[in-house]
Amino acid sequence: MNALTQSISNMIKGSLKALSAFPASIGAAVGLALVTLIRIQLDWPVLQPWNFLLDCLQLALATGAIFSLAAITAAQSRFGNRKAFLGANLLGAGSAVVTFLVLYLFSGTSAGGTQRAALSSLIVLRVFVVIFVSLVAFILLMDRSKENDDFAESFFMTHKAFFIALIYGLVLLAGTAGIARAVQSLLYREMSGKVYGYLATLVGLLTFTIFVGYFPDFKKGSEDDRREIAQKQPRFIVILFGYIMVPIVLALTAVLLIWAGKTVLGGTEVSFVRLSAISAAYTIGGLWLHAMLARHDSGVARVYRVVYPAASIVILLFEAWALVGQLRVSGLKVTEYAFLLVWALAAAGSVLLLTRKRDPHRIIAIIVCVLAVVYVLPFVGYRDLPVYAQSKRLEKLLVGEHMLAEGKITPASAEPSLDVRIAVTDAVSYLLRADDAKLPSWFPRDLDSESEFKAKLGFEKTWPGSEVPKMYLSTNLYMPATAIDVDAYRWAVSLHDAYGKESNSVTLQGDKGLYQIDWILSGNGVPTVRIMLDGRMIVEQSMDVYLQDVVSKYPPAESFSTEAPLADMSVKLDTPEIKALLVFDSVSVNVNTESNSTDYWMSLRSIYFSENP
């Protein structure tokens, strides 16, 4: 019991310490929690008009909370006086206000074709970059002495604070949610599910205060014994990094080196998207682990600190080769752009790790921040630069085929080569997906339509592999909503329950006797209609002839649904005894070109039936 009391007491003391050390940051976090509670409380019809305002408030307060950490740490570690501390808190609060005003007044766009404002994904990403840069600045500014700075130790201390706070938070969340669930199950069944949202928000606030309260005093001239404890890596962390994670990264290094060798011998066959994901994981994970191992003295750690940057240089040369090849094929897109930035980070990081002996990780962290900012900048960011590159690529292709002149696209007079058609389709598709990007004035915005694409460019959309014969071809017809003149018929016979059965039957009493109407399916789906009068067969007709006419008029191709008129979606029967009209909702013909087999499916809407005089 004493241990529990002591743990709670330490947690409260840590939270109070965080409030006194970083008041602006904790104040912004409290504001963020209050806005979140309001958002949870309001149901959607009431919340919708306020959604944009609350989005702006939440992002602004989150920015203020993290920016305040950096500003206060800078003031305490560089100046250490009350005036600087007060100014830093005011600057942190001001960052939240400025962010809110910028978002609310200048960043709203219409959402979903409505007049309501919303934040675009680019704006949100820019705010997250500001938060990320502020967090890195907080870590960089922890060191009070320029002569003895050590980013790696501050970097680890931040991780340690985060995971300790996370463990406390998860335990608190699990406990409070369990209590709430018990109350709901045993005492108050009408309890709102919003209670769990309230608890999660309050626990999140407490977790943040635990995270902030874990850090030692950064004030200039003061010595806090807790700093050495906070920076010390526990034994299990040393084992985890040195004997588990290092072998994993070294194994990935070996895989990438083998890939480089295969590339030299036979070229690259790996998907560029997959290569970019592996490269990003290797670069970010490798640099992160190198920083974590900066003060390890084990043999494994020393080997890793030498092998990783040297092997990265070799791997980077072949990744550059793959990137150049990809740019030649499809030009610069978001994937290639992100890959280029990660490559630049890996190259700069590897060179710094090999050439700079004292704290290279600090410069690497600054480079990461610069690249993150570049990623979201206008003109040179991930949205504008790839769009500009693809616009120029498309322009060059169209000019080369004499399809673009004087700012106007004209259809191709002759079908371009397969490579050109694939490249044009690829560039057009990318530009159409570029939301809110500035596109060339000559670029039509309706090219997503197959018909408009063919009408304006003179050929159909063409993708890689289009020249390969299709294994499966089909004809899919459907009848649109329409009125049918059935004045000449007496009965409407429904056989919808025939689905999944080999046959279905309906009987009706007419003036000439008892009729039995059967709809019979064969093995390949070609049905037969059979009509009997008082046990005597008067009609037995397969739909085979009708289906052959369908295939002749609508040849099987790629699987697209086609609207067909009533004349093509019906069959007439006429005998001395009766006349009937079979109307279909849909007709499908599926051809397997490899096995040379054909399957049919017909959805019968109704049989309109009448006796002849």
What descriptors fit this protein?
613 residues; alpha+beta; 4 domains; six-stranded mixed beta sheet; 14 strands; elongated
Write a structural description.
By secondary structure, the protein is an alpha+beta fold. The chain folds into 4 domains: 2-231, no CATH class; 235-376; 384-457, no CATH class; 472-611, no CATH class. Helices cover 58% and strands 14% of the residues. The chain is built from 18 helices and 14 strands. It has helices at 2-21, 23-41, 44-47, 51-78, 82-106, 121-140, 151-186, 194-214, 226-231, 235-266, 272-292, 299-330, 334-355, 360-376, 384-400, 418-432, 450-457, 544-553; strands at 108-110, 117-119, 404-405, 408-409, 472-478, 491-493, 503-509, 514-521, 527-533, 536-542, 561-563, 570-574, 578-592, 597-611. Strands 5, 6, 11, 12, 13 and 14 form a 6-stranded mixed β-sheet that branches. A hairpin with a 2-residue loop joins β3 and β4 (408-409). The longest helix is centred in the first third of the chain and has 36 residues, at 151-186. It is elongated, with a radius of gyration of 35 Å.
Indicate the mean pLDDT. Answer: 87
Strand proportion: 5-15%
Main pleated-sheet profile: 6 strands, mixed
Structural class call reads: alpha+beta
Q: Give the helix level as a range of percent.
A: 55-70%
> What is the count of helical runs?
18
Which regions have little confidence, pLDDT < 50, spanning 5+ residues? none
Overall geometric form: elongated
Quaternary state of the chains: single chain
Total strands: the figure is 14
Instruction: Please report the distance between the alpha carbons of the first and last residues.
Output: 100 Å
Number of domains: 4
Radius of gyration, taken over Cα atoms and rounded to an integer in Å: 35 Å
